[in-house]
Amino acid sequence: MKTMDDLFLHHVKDIYYAEKQILKALPKMAKATSSPELKKAFEHHRDETEGQVERLEQIFEILGKPVRGVKCDAIEGLIAEAKEVMDEAEDDGVMDAGLLASAQAVEHYEIARYGTMSAWASQLGLAKAVKLLDETLKQEKAADQLLTKIAASGVNAEAS
Amino acid sequence: MKTMDDLFLHHVKDIYYAEKQILKALPKMAKATSSPELKKAFEHHRDETEGQVERLEQIFEILGKPVRGVKCDAIEGLIAEAKEVMDEAEDDGVMDAGLLASAQAVEHYEIARYGTMSAWASQLGLAKAVKLLDETLKQEKAADQLLTKIAASGVNAEAS
Questions:
Q1: A6 and chain B: CB distance < 8 Å anywhere?
Q2: Which chain B residues touch A6 with a CB distance below 8 Å?
């Protein structure tokens, strides 16, 4: 990695891989919860993630590069933690609290990544990419806020 | 994991392991950067992390449990990404931008985790633990804001 263009492209590939993994994980998380509210949030975010994948594909096109992911160790670890919760929770309330925690950790990872990438795209003069990244960033922040609201509204409280 | 107490304790162990890994990674990141500002930020946060580890040890004591970490896959992945940057960046500006991105991803993970754990501790009536967790959460948010400020002030700009 010699230039900011290399670093930016690497991160586009990294988050592309991550979004694909998230796309696979969310239906499992929706299936694992007994809370209709949380189930709906996971399903809604799964649909949003499809749009986020498409936006990344548009960025590959802007860069004139083939659409290709690269293994993202961070998302592998974050999803492994969500799987651990699904495997080990022996109570509905504990399951939901653990799923909420895992989902918010994933959202925060994405918020950090899209925030950084939007700043880099701006420096690189890639105005159209900035717009696409900011659109996704806004969705990730809203998803995180919704999860906080669900947690506060009682999913966690029921389990304590 | 049958109760919220189990889930809370598991997360205390998980973040305790994570903080210990961060304690080892930060001096390497401080060594890898050529920016005095970023070096100072990493060193300062290393010192803060020592205090955060001590606070977690106080929480183990409050819970009446032995101080023990449990492997945290998420932090392993996040630190693997930082190592990748350190191994592959061939330019000082690219190195600093990549280190900033990695550090902010770690901060966001911690912000998500401490936020969740503080909410759980509050539900569990562990007022003293809430205070300790909130103190660390405040430091993590400040560290993230400082990194954003450094990124905006030119570390990234120099590399583009």
A1: yes
A2: 94
